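Q: Trace token order:
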Amino acid sequence: MKILKRLAILTLTGVIGLSLTACGSKTSKKVNDVADGKNIIVGVCPGPYGDMVKEIFTPLLEKKGYTVEVKEFSDYIQPDQALNNGEISANLMQHTEYLNKFSKDNNLEISAVKTVPTLGMGMFSNKYTSIDQIPDGAKIGVPNDASNLARALNVLSVNNIIKLKDNVDATKASKLDIAENIKNIQLVEVEGAQLARSIESTDVSLIPGNYAYASGLDYSKALAIEPLTENYKNVVAVKTSDLDKTLGTDFKEIIESEEFKTAIESSKFKDFSKPEWWK
């Protein structure tokens, strides 16, 4: 049943992705036709941050007079491109490190508003229940994008599966920075949305929190959970030109509000890693 559930979720995300491609020009027209900026579209990926937008952000945005539509995307690439192109108004699906690198590499004019509570990357396996059981030569699934691969390498290093070179920048670690492959593991690079399914063909997989959540994986059964640093906590992003305008400042006010904190603390997001500013 768990396998069927994961396959169903992945099939759904694929359908969502195709429908978004087909409807791209229609979405763009809708955003551009909004004169007062109170009808907004927020991009998400299936998982905890999509739920956070629907269950926490939307009611608070509506209190400020916004009409909110939530658009789901099946990967990390489309939401930033859609935001930069004006097809959506904001997104919540990525951490600061990914946003900065992706926007720089692709010349996008998008910026982070504020960090929010975030679910760390988890190490999952259908074969083993502890790190000690992982055998020499194990196949380990990791994300294929640079910033999330660096996160995975750090989790492996913290758990003594590999050793990274001294003084390596943890946010930029690559396979070339592996100083010692302690368990002689084989890294299998997989697109983030497919990592949950990769558990069936690998010994262990390191899965970003949103995809692990969307696939129904139980964090109480994770072999390890990533200790999150601030640059790996997720952010609400808007176009850079909107950062200091009403949309950007309204998002910032909502995130910093006691009402937002109370809503988080009384929800299924209460155990997510909190930002440093959270007091």
The chain is about 40% helix and 20% strand.
